[in-house]
Every structure is written in C-alpha cells, then in structure tokens.
Predict the structure.
Amino acid sequence: MPTDEAVVETAAEAAEGLVLDRLKTSDVDDLDITVTFEDGVLDVDVYVRAPDADADVEQVADDAALAAQAAVDDLFAAE
C-alpha cells in the first residue's frame, strides 16, 4: 500500500502536469493545488488564475482534479 506522502505527491504532480500541459506557463498567474489524504479519503482542490488563457480555465482545474484522482487510482492498482 502506498504511503500517504506518495499518494499526495502523485496527485499533486498529476494535477500540475495537466494544468501546465493545457495552459501556457506564461498565461498562468497563479496555480494552487491542495491535496490531502487522510483515513483513505483523497481531497484535491485546484485553483488556476489565468485571465489571458484561451482555454476554459475552470474546466482545466476540474480536469486537473480528476487527473489527480486517476493517478492515485493507478498508484493503488499497481500495488
């Protein structure tokens, strides 16, 4: 079973990777990813401020949270 730290790191990396894949770094003014994993419950909150981005920033943030959850699911499946 993965450690809590590994779960948090995996989720955060996946969320950040998706945001930076979909948005230009120069368009991102603020990126805040908060991940907690306590008692087997994963909570991911992604905030992106990118007023000059062409993409739907709210959708990117939602997709990043989903990517984080999927990455953690894959982490547990690999164990």
Summary: The chain has a mean pLDDT of 96. The two ends are 6 Å apart (CA to CA). The chain has one domain: 4-78. Residues 36 and 43 are 5 Å apart (CA to CA).
